[in-house]
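Researcher: I'm preparing a figure for a lab meeting and need a structural model of a single chain. I don't have an experimental structure, so a prediction will have to do for now. The sequence is pasted below. Please return the structure as tokens so I can convert it later.
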Amino acid sequence: MNLCVLSGKGGTGKTTVSVNLSLLLGYNYIDCDVEEPNGFIFLKPENVMGEDVRIDYPVIDKAKCTLCRKCAEACLFNALVTTKSSVMVFEKLCHACGACAVVCGADAVSYAQRKVGRIEQGISRGIAVKRGVQDVGEYMGVPVIRQLLSRLPEGNNILDCPPGTSCNVVNTIAFADRALIVTEPTAFGLHDMELAVRLLRSRNIPFGVVVNKHSADNTLIQDYCKENRIRLIGTVSYSKEAAVAYSTGRMLTELPLYKKEFEAIALKIGEVR
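Model: Understood. Here is the structure written out token by token.
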């Protein structure tokens, strides 16, 4: 079973919930937030091994190219531009779709590869811990996410999604059996949570909600869930103690109050269906 943990926006505590639930449930942890993968900070895996992520990009043979412009016209991502004297290739815009080679009647297009990221995997307290890391300066995280998820560990996995509802998230939840949305009780948190709700419902993925930074006098998210028939899985209390523990890379389940709250959330995961 793959449980995806989403947040409509960054900073809601998605990774905090993901890593603590991974240890409590004994689920493998997969960090799909390839632009800023923070899960390793908390889980501290050992025996980490890695592999590069590489993608194709076109190389134009000037001796064969007739400057017919067909390759540039076929490229939906503006990675190719035909000038009076050559075809310019913008490697970082290329999605490696292969259209340029298909339409080239002069057989002037071949492909080379370039590195866009890295996959790393280790072990932490008996669970597999895996992440994708997008190279600095790269625009596309999807190739890294696809390679990361192409070989998932056996058993149950928690997929720590990228924040928001972008194409990175869409490619991650394609592997979801169930999902959790982690939000905070603010107007911004609610607004972006609604985007995540619409995304999951459009994909018919069952989900529930966890409210992080919860305080008893703020029921903004609870009221929304009740009005929209969304299952509330649990809450994580707001406190300075939690912030201090988080800032030093400690697990919240090391604190008695938070261990109790995460155990309650873990027990309700089965209700998401």
